[in-house]
Write a structure and sequence with these properties.
Radius of gyration: 15 Å
CATH architecture: Orthogonal Bundle
Shape: globular
Number of strands: 4
Strand order of the largest sheet: 1-4-2-3
Mean pLDDT: 85
CATH topology: Arc Repressor Mutant, subunit A
Number of helices: 4
Number of domains: 1
Low-confidence stretches: none
Largest sheet: 4 strands, antiparallel
Length: 100
């Protein structure tokens, strides 16, 4: 049975969090486990990228390159996906660590 865009979005939003980013590969492998014969998780990567850019444009998540939020427009190369508050939580944790 084909994987719907809704399943991709739901899985993506479940995997990202305020203190966690994920690679597109992680989302694809969650949807198509390695033990499923005949299905290749790599085939989902273009759809994950497309949906992630839409969600980032809507403010539901962030696209990261080298750990920093970037515009989803014209996204190329290696990237990660994080929740909308990812950088704020990371900055707060860094501030607390430097105060200790």
């Amino acid at each position: 049975m084909p994987i719907s865009d809704e399943e991709i979005v739901e899985t993506t939003l479940k995997l990202v969090g305020p203190d966690r980013s994920v690679a597109p590969r992680d989302i694809a492998q969650k949807l198509i486990p390695a033990e499923e014969d005949g299905k290749d998780w790599r085939s989902l990567l273009p759809r994950i990228k497309k949906l992630a850019t839409v969600l980032a444009g809507d403010g539901q998540l962030q696209i990261l390159r080298k750990g920093k939020p970037v515009s989803p427009a014209g996204l190329k190369g290696v990237y990660r996906i994080a929740g909308p508050d990812y950088q704020k939580v990371k900055d707060t944790a860094n501030d607390q660590a430097s105060d200790a």
